[in-house]
Design brief:
The complex is a heterodimer of chains A (about 110) and B (about 325).
Chain A (H helix, E strand, L loop, with lengths): L2 H10 L4 E2 H11 L8 H13 L3 E9 L2 E8 L1 H36 L1
Antiparallel strand pairs in A: 1-3, 2-3
Helix pairs in contact in A: 1-2
Chain B lengths: L2 H9 L5 H21 L7 H20 L4 H26 L6 H8 L14 H16 L3 H24 L8 H16 L6 H22 L4 E2 L4 E2 L3 H4 L5 H20 L3 H21 L4 H22 L10
Helix pairs in contact in B: 1-2, 4-6, 4-8, 4-9, 4-12, 6-7, 7-8, 8-12, 11-12, 12-13
The chains are: A alpha+beta (about 110), B mainly alpha (about 325).
């Protein structure tokens, strides 16, 4: 799963959001690293809807503008959970290796 | 409707009509929300460019629903490798002093000819663009690769028209432009991601190898009186040399059959799709044997489509009524 897709799903994990809400949330969740362009976001949402991970969850007109809301489906939540677990596992393994390295360096210098 | 909204709606015309009917209003709403947040009344140039690229990708993505991402990504990497090799070859014969077409006419033609500096024609811009696109694919910059590949379409048309307008003696060959744009379309169908480097190099090597073999076996461009070779584009495209096309077709067919026999469905489809542009080129340039080669194309295209549909999860359900 690519990083923008991950943050789109993560953004929808706590409830439905419209396009602009997802962009701001993804930026915030990634500490400013992932700034989604609108075209990229809608391409991702289109694909995620086709895969059944996300569904449209109502339209609203605000100040004459259409706001379409999206929400995570159960398969979408499962996919996000699996990807989160995979990333967490990778991070744990990397941290273990770093701890081993730190211990080795300490032993050599002692 | 504000000027900003008009500009966004205009940019969204790059998307397919069906897609616009479904998403245009929601997307314009989001674009305007983002612009408001940034206190802008004009779109960023990069923003519009991104919409153009995404729109084009969405149009091409219609094929993506039929052909799986895995197949498209591999076809994309192979197309990039082939296009880069073809462009490298084209750059070589574009250098006037290297013995290209311009040099031939300078020596044996009637009167002086005009060139684009040390190069035969404005086609050099298209070829260099392709090389840069391949480099960006190999070093892992897929977004830039796509932008450069999209740019090759207008550049090819402009190079051709400008050459005529400036009264230059030689133009980028229609065949070269045609095959490069077919390859660019194939490259844009997918995103050259996993193992891109290896695939690009393999495809480039095979293409250069095939072209060198053609030159080695076919001396049609060696002038007997001078013993000199002149590197014309025609030789690369195997025109008047059906055995080479036959070998390529036979080789591709054997690979396809072997892949099918060993249940390597994806590679069967990738091979069949990748060889199609070259067969199409042969049929386009050489009307002799059009029926046979057209039939070969049809068979390979059918195999590619059938395998792609099967790997994408499509099945034919036959029931007795």
């Amino acid at each position: 799963m690519r990083e923008p897709t991950f943050f789109v799903l993560a953004s929808l994990a706590d409830g439905r959001k419209h396009g602009y809400g997802i962009i701001k949330d993804a930026e915030s969740l990634s500490d400013g690293r992932v700034i989604l362009k609108v075209g990229t976001l809608y391409a991702a949402l289109d694909r995620l809807q086709a895969e059944g991970l996300v569904v449209a969850a109502g339209d609203e007109i605000v100040s004459g503008r259409l706001r379409r809301y999206f929400e995570l489906t159960e398969p979408g939540a499962a996919s996000l959970a699996a990807e989160s677990e995979r990333q967490a596992l990778n991070a744990r393994r990397a941290q273990d290796r770093l701890k081993q390295r730190a211990a080795r360096v300490t032993a050599v210098t002692a | 409707m504000s000027e900003l909204e008009e500009k966004y709606r205009s940019a969204l015309r790059w998307y397919p009509a069906k897609w616009r009917t479904k998403n245009e209003d929601a997307m314009v709403g989001t674009l305007l929300d983002v612009a408001d947040d940034q206190h802008r009344e004009h779109p960023f140039p990069g923003e519009l460019r991104s919409l153009h690229v995404q729109g084009l990708q969405t149009r091409l993505g219609i094929f993506g629903r039929i052909i799986g991402a895995e197949i498209r990504d591999r076809v994309s990497a192979i197309a990039i490798g082939s296009g880069a090799a073809l462009s490298a070859w084209a750059i070589f014969y574009s250098i006037v002093d290297a013995g290209g077409e311009a040099r031939f006419y300078q020596i044996y033609g009637n009167g002086p000819i005009s060139t684009f500096g040390p190069f035969t024609s404005l086609g050099i811009i298209l070829y260099v663009l392709w090389i840069i696109a391949a480099i960006t694919a190999v070093i892992g910059m897929p977004r830039l690769t796509r932008i450069l590949l999209v740019a090759t379409f207008p550049v090819a048309v402009i190079a051709r028209l400008l050459s005529e307008r400036l009264g230059m003696s030689l133009f980028p060959s229609t065949t070269t432009v045609l095959v490069l744009e077919i390859l660019a379309t194939l490259a844009l169908l997918g995103t050259a991601r996993a193992n891109t480097r290896r695939r690009v190099w393999i495809a480039a090597s095979l293409t250069v190898g095939a072209s060198l073999l053609t030159y080695a076996l076919w001396s049609g461009h060696m002038l007997p009186s001078t013993g000199r070779y002149f590197f014309f584009e025609r030789a690369f495209f195997l025109i008047n040399w059906p055995p080479m096309v036959a070998w390529i077709t036979a080789g591709a067919s054997i690979i396809v059959v072997a892949c099918l026999a060993t249940r390597r469905w994806v590679w069967a489809s990738v091979t069949a799709i990748s060889v199609l542009p070259w067969l199409a080129l042969y049929v386009y340039r050489n009307q002799d044997g059009i029926l046979f080669w057209g039939l070969c194309m049809l068979v390979l295209a059918s195999v590619a489509t059938a395998v792609s549909l099967l790997t994408a999860g499509y099945r034919i359900n036959v029931t007795k009524v």
